[in-house]
């Protein structure tokens, strides 16, 4: 927790107000309601009157278990126009239309949703959805900047197919993704402050597959979640993000990130090295295979087919992280570029995971290393993480505890630390 903490931790039940603007994506708000109710949160839905032309009040009432109204003159005896906003721990508006953002930026209170936002002291998160031209219009840009300057979180819209034939930024992200991004703000409302604008960042994520024959490979259990979370936070903080994704679970693409898919360690090395040329920060969150089969069979290896399958010859893969540090030392990359690594460690008879992490930091020569203890269901494939952030101080290592929390919150802590390396 920090100064911007709301005093609510990651897993406490929250009073969530879901605002729904009048756009075609209003139907996705129904899934967002379900996301929060299934996590045990108390949900009130406040649609605008236009939103109710897309989705009926009955849908929101059934899913939230609470009555729905749009007007400040509904339920006047309960002073509803201020009560819902005052009591909320979190307000999420999805979709936030251009018109609704304009009204919020003006401080209008001409319906229940805008009135609720005006009395709210909790974090307010807007998930905009509109045609690309509307999103890019100077009026909308100004409104977004004004809202952000007042502490409202305006999420970046996803890129992709919009209503009709057009594609571009303006699409509503998937509801679960909005839910995760919004929930994280409750513990830190500055989590998506615009502190990385004009920064170019490169993040690798996921595992690699090292081919053995056309159908088999050597791989690992990395889900890619931590790398994607780092990309999510960087996008929301305003960075230009290239995400080099190895083999991952089916994760939502961080809005607006340039995603390059690779499979092997050598493909990843090529993609990272190319993207790193003009980057300000490179984070190697990928679990890169240290070795690959020395020979890749052109045809499927057959049991009893004359192939010796009882042993496997391996050859070492390039160390991408060490290569980046070396290239910077050699002046091939900007000297002010920050290079960040990960260390997924288990303890052994003589050393703790942290001992291994410290040794790895000094061996790899990067600026920051996130060290996790893994194994026994810890970290790999999980939604949560914890560990230590290590950075070098001469021959010594400074250790900062990263408490147990969602991978998004861990990503935010890492970005806070990376940004402080510049100071
Ligand atoms: N890494 C890399 N290229 C490799 C292996 C690892 O860039 N061929 C990066 C990872 O992305 C991570 C860091 O190096 O940021 C540490 O990875 P890890 O596998 O823990 O380190 P290794 O050097 O392989 O050491 P170990 O002997 O513990 O496996």
UniProtKB/TrEMBL annotation:
Domain Flavoprotein: start-end pairs: 15-170
Cofactor binding notes: Binds 1 FMN per subunit.
MF (Gene Ontology): FMN binding; metal ion binding; phosphopantothenate--cysteine ligase activity; phosphopantothenoylcysteine decarboxylase activity
Domain of life: Bacteria
PANTHER family linked: HOMO-OLIGOMERIC FLAVIN CONTAINING CYS DECARBOXYLASE FAMILY (PTHR14359), PHOSPHOPANTOTHENOYLCYSTEINE DECARBOXYLASE (PTHR14359:SF6)
Keyword Hydrolase: no
Similarity comment: In the N-terminal section; belongs to the HFCD (homo-oligomeric flavin containing Cys decarboxylase) superfamily.
One GO term of the biological process aspect: coenzyme A biosynthetic process
Keyword Metal-binding among UniProt keywords: yes
Domain DNA/pantothenate metabolism flavoprotein C-terminal as annotated: residue spans: 197-420
Catalytic activity: (R)-4'-phosphopantothenate + L-cysteine + CTP = N-[(R)-4-phosphopantothenoyl]-L-cysteine + CMP + diphosphate + H(+); N-[(R)-4-phosphopantothenoyl]-L-cysteine + H(+) = (R)-4'-phosphopantetheine + CO2
Cofactors demanded by this protein: FMN; Mg(2+)
A GO-annotated cellular component: phosphopantothenoylcysteine decarboxylase complex
Protein name: Coenzyme A biosynthesis bifunctional protein CoaBC
Chain positions covered by the region annotation Phosphopantothenate--cysteine ligase: 201-423
Binding site residues for CTP: 290, 300, 318-321, 342, 360, 364
This protein's pathway: Cofactor biosynthesis; coenzyme A biosynthesis; CoA from (R)-pantothenate: step 2/5; Cofactor biosynthesis; coenzyme A biosynthesis; CoA from (R)-pantothenate: step 3/5
Keywords, alphabetical: Decarboxylase, Flavoprotein, FMN, Ligase, Lyase, Magnesium, Metal-binding, Multifunctional enzyme
Function: Catalyzes two steps in the biosynthesis of coenzyme A. In the first step cysteine is conjugated to 4'-phosphopantothenate to form 4-phosphopantothenoylcysteine, in the latter compound is decarboxylated to form 4'-phosphopantotheine.
NCBIfam families, sorted: coaBC_dfp
EC number of the protein: 4.1.1.36, 6.3.2.5
Record-linked InterPro entries: CoaB-like_sf, CoaBC, DNA/pantothenate-metab_flavo_C, Flavin_trans-like, Flavoprotein
Annotated segments matching region Phosphopantothenoylcysteine decarboxylase: 1-200
